[in-house]
Write a structure and sequence with these properties.
The complex is a heterodimer of chains A (about 325) and B (about 270).
Chain A: E1 2-15, H1 20-28, E2 31-45, E3 50-54, H2 61-68, E4 76-81, H3 91-94, E5 97-101, H4 113-123, H5 128-142, H6 157-168, E6 175-179, H7 187-204, E7 207-211, H8 215-221, E8 224-229, E9 232-238, H9 239-246, E10 249-256, E11 270-274, E12 278-284, H10 288-298, E13 301-307, H11 311-323
Parallel strand pairs in A: 3-7, 3-8, 5-6, 6-7
Antiparallel strand pairs in A: 1-2, 1-4, 8-9, 10-12, 10-13, 11-12
Helix pairs in contact in A: 4-6
Chain B: H1 3-21, H2 25-33, H3 37-48, H4 59-75, H5 80-90, H6 93-97, H7 103-113, H8 115-133, H9 142-168, H10 170-173, H11 177-190, H12 202-208, H13 218-224, H14 231-262
Helix pairs in contact in B: 1-7, 3-4, 4-8, 4-13, 5-9, 9-13, 9-14
The chains are: A alpha/beta (about 325), B mainly alpha (about 270).
């Protein structure tokens, strides 16, 4: 569905030092710097896949999504989305895709979202019966209710994002680029958006490429991740393999019936956190069974959980290694 | 987007554009009031012409001319450059580019969508004109009215192209708002908005005839008030007006295509 070969996108950025003098000089003479936002990346995504696109701020994620959706012309390289070259922005291509930017909106600010839905119906040339069916489905899945009748400017951030998603899907795109769709949302709204994206993918077989700084979004939605840093590809593969490769540890959380000393735990693994009633230990995955058995035998354990290390830590370590 | 599909979507674009234009009713009325300069000029020139006419302009002719100017300005205006500047600078143009309708069509529809509201203001002024200065203030010739309609369309298109070209320059300059200020200085002086072109010195008039400004305001007003004695004269001026329409169209497409390559779609 999506093929990217040796994609590069370089920008010319105007630079100047702070201060009035520099501002005045920049009127007559400007210096420009070339920024390699994306510097030669390759990947393929099959139809119906849900892929997380990860990287720190400024890694080139949003630039890549903008190239894939035809907003930016690549400096070099080949990009194909369902057989289309995005930069041509052919109607047939635009009718198959949608880019949702968590920090930009397509909803008409002064009008109710229902007007944006109607506008999209007209410009995407969606037949009326299909439009009604799609809206019924979206209103049910996103619990839109009366939100669609209120002026957009009066909606909360979460309500607006639900309506943004609905507006983006009026024409049932086959490919959905989601850039930080849960940014700024509360935990429950994040869960709603995640569940919705998963159901849309399952129902319509849509291909989804998602960027998010909330690792929960990625863990819940994306079996595969593509990681970039400073415009370069760092990893492309299953999320669990990435975790296993970077952090072959498991995190064991012990809760104790009575306080224990930190020194009692040091022998079993790396103590990440310790207080009187609870301790967190990182242990190599092969040693989990042995450690659990030993701790249960030696210490007054009342409860325990075994989990993967937080994805945030895995990513930090991956970027640190890449930059080293 | 194919022309057929765009034409099909156009009524919805107009309807939504109208709803958007009237979302802030008070602001809309204030904006319309801000275009009442011809009424100020009317008072000024009427006072000047109190004792003796200037050229063939006595008080009634000035009243008719500036009320017609007000009507034409209302009906042939566009502020698309303002929206474009904002959208290019903060990157929201990206959302328009994702839709399969050409953004220039969308800007045109939005400009046109404000027309019904402006007509609501312009029609009473036209009625007052007729009541105050009599039916002879405007032409009675149906052919001239047909040519007036053509000149109005031309005037609106030139104004729209100017807005879009200046809007597109934001791709290169990041903000082109001041360029519109500069354009408006020439527009106010050379379009017939403040002074009828007929009263310009002959040499300046010869230059103005070749510039686009007159065809944004002056020509429709002149046809409406029956200034031109022959169809041949009107047709010659219309030919120049539509030459500017064609030049403006070409310039708009060129600025758009070149500019879009510069578009950085700022912001996440």
């Amino acid at each position: 569905m999506i093929q990217v070969r040796a994609l590069r996108k370089h920008y010319q950025v105007h630079e100047r030092a702070p201060g009035v003098g520099a501002a005045f000089r920049s009127v007559f003479r400007r210096t420009y710097k070339t920024i390699a936002a994306v510097d030669g990346i390759d990947f393929d995504i099959a139809a119906g896949e849900r892929v997380g696109f990860l990287g720190p701020n400024g890694a080139g994620k949003t630039t890549t999504l903008k190239v894939l959706s035809g907003l930016l012309h690549p400096t070099s390289g080949q990009v194909s989305v369902d057989g289309h070259e995005p930069r041509r922005r052919e109607d047939a291509f635009l009718k198959k895709i949608m880019l949702v930017l968590g920090q930009k909106q397509q909803l008409l600010w002064d009008l109710p979202p229902s007007d944006t839905f109607e506008l999209n119906r007209a410009v995407y040339d969606v037949p009326l019966p299909q439009f009604r069916e799609t809206m019924r489905e979206l209103e049910e899945l996103l619990e839109l209710g009366d939100l669609v009748k209120k002026p957009t400017r009066t909606l909360s951030l979460g309500e607006r994002m639900k309506c943004e998603l609905a507006a983006a899907l009026v024409h049932r795109p086959k490919v959905l680029f989601l850039d930080e769709p849960t940014i700024g949302l509360d935990v429950s709204m994040q869960a709603t958006v995640r569940a919705f994206v998963a159901r849309y993918n399952e129902r319509h077989g849509a291909t989804i490429l998602l960027t998010s700084h909330y690792m929960e979004d990625v863990q819940r939605l994306c079996p595969r991740v593509i990681v970039i840093d400073k415009g370069l590809l760092v990893y492309d593969g299953p999320l669990d393999q990435l975790v296993a490769r970077i952090r072959p540890d498991k995190r064991i959380v012990f809760r104790f019936a009575r306080p224990v000393d930190r020194s009692d735990l040091g022998a079993f693994g790396t103590v990440v956190r310790h207080d009187a009633g609870e301790s967190v230990l990182d242990v190599h995955k092969d040693a989990v069974n042995r450690v659990v058995t030993q701790v249960l035998a030696q210490l007054p354990v009342s409860d325990l959980t075994v989990e993967n290390p937080p994805l945030e830590e895995v990513m930090s370590e991956l970027f640190a290694r890449h930059r080293a | 987007m194919s022309v057929r599909a765009t034409v099909r979507a156009f009524p919805t674009l107009l309807r939504i554009g109208f709803a958007d234009a009237v979302a802030y009713r008070a602001e809309m009325i204030v904006w319309i009031l801000a275009t009442t300069m011809p009424l100020v000029m009317l008072a000024l020139w009427s006072a000047v012409a109190q004792d003796q006419p200037i050229g063939r302009y006595g008080q009634p002719q000035f009243v008719a001319y500036f009320l017609a100017t007000f009507v034409v300005r209302q009906m042939a205006s566009s502020w698309a450059f303002y929206e474009m500047n904002f959208e290019v600078r903060n990157g929201t143009l990206a959302m328009r580019l994702l839709r399969p309708v050409h953004p220039l069509w969308a800007y045109a529809a939005e400009s046109l969508a404000g027309l019904p509201f402006r007509v609501l203001v312009a029609v009473p002024v036209a009625m007052v004109t007729l009541a105050v200065v009599g039916r002879d203030a405007v032409t009675h010739d149906p052919t001239s009215w047909a040519l007036w309609a053509v000149s109005m369309l031309g005037a609106w298109l030139i104004t729209l192209w100017v807005n879009l070209v200046i809007g597109c320059l934001a791709f290169f300059m990041e903000s082109s708002m001041k360029l519109m200020d500069a354009w408006l200085v020439f527009f106010f002086v050379l379009s017939g908005y403040l002074i009828p072109i007929e009263l310009f010195p002959a040499r300046l008039r010869a230059v103005v005839d070749w510039l686009p400004f007159r065809y944004q305001i002056g020509l429709p007003v002149e046809i409406m008030t029956g200034v031109h004695p022959s169809y041949a004269e009107i047709l010659e001026l219309l030919a120049r007006q539509w030459a500017w329409v064609a030049i403006g169209f070409g310039a708009t497409l060129l600025a758009w295509r070149r500019g879009l390559r510069q578009f950085a779609a700022y912001g996440g």
